[in-house]
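For practice. Any example?
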Amino acid sequence: MIKVFGIIAVLISVTNVLLVSGMEYGQGCSRNPCGQNAICQETLGGRPVCSCPINYSGNPLSYCQKGECNDHIDCRLDQHCMNNRCTNPCAGKCGIGANCEVVNHVAVCSCPARYRGDPLHQCRAIDPDEACHPSPCGVNTQCRVENEQPVCTCLASFKGNPITGCNHECESDHDCGSSQYCKNFKCYSACEQCGKGALCNGVINHRPQCECPKTYIGSPFTECRPECYGDVDCPSSKPACIYGICKNLCEGACGVNANCNLRGLTPICSCPKHMTGDPFVSCRPFVPEDLCRPNPCGSNAICTPGHDNTGKERPVCSCPAGYTGNALRSCQRGECLANEECPDNRACINYACVDPCIGKCGISAICSPKNHLAVCTCPNGFSGDAKVSCRQSRTLPIARYSRSLLKQFNETVADIEDDVVPKV
């Protein structure tokens, strides 16, 4: 098809030339019969021939267009000049799967990473394990590829040179270190044979010395565990789980000789009925003095051991000397202890300063307090015992009764003094 169009174009050009030559016969190129930018040349017969100059293209009879480039340097570095045009030099240059990079107007073909082959024809993916097929390693080894290079290692439980071959790490315990043992042809720490939660106290002849921690139960070669994880794991005799141990909370909670009873998980300490004391320290047998410890009486009262009407031991409360009041509630210090603490016309009776005449003299007698004493006398015109009764006297000669009246008066004063002086 391209050849056909080429022949047609040549015929058209020749026809145009002929037409130009026929129209302007004998004039040649003087009338410039060619197209824009075209070159006109006359043949030997004077006929004009039109053509596009170098680096131009087009129809010389109408228009010749200048090309994009004449050389590679006229194009960018990633292009080259072909048929006066800047094009991609990689187009159709490299093989299947290859990369193309333009360097100084030249297409450079290469295979991508992890690919190999002829980049001008075809690149194919590399098998990741290709370096290990066939394996360059010895027997009982494993080959793996790292950075496209084979790496050889011994299989599990084998040791040796992986390039020449590997052997079992051990056949018996004696092939291992003194603190190891042989299992499945591999050496392990002998302490690994101890059970869960057990302690390893060293190794003797490849055998571990296993034991359970203190307060733990179980087998040191299988599992050691706490006696309990919660109260529900404990028996009723030791109902509390404390740090993995079942305990009776009464142990060590109470004092000497004291009783202990659990209320839930709370220890309740008490002294036995026949004893007293601090149940958290010590309990001892009762003594009579314990009835007054602590003092059950009122403030300022004195407690002394005694007995009630049935003969049972009971505390007896009383106010001390110089105090008055209800000993079961409170005793208050009295107003006085002796007459000297009272005014001259008052006497100290039952620790209070009172009138010493109260209830001391007889009927119709006169009482005069003096020096804390009640002085009783019968009034004028009366006679009798002033401490008992005074009665109106009859008129008699003075000489007859004067001595007897004086004697009676002296006896009365003496009796009053005996009655008024308080007995402490």
About this structure: Confidence is low (pLDDT under 50) at residues 1-26, 398-402, 420-424. The chain is about 10% helix and 35% strand. The first strand starts at residue 39 and ends at 42.
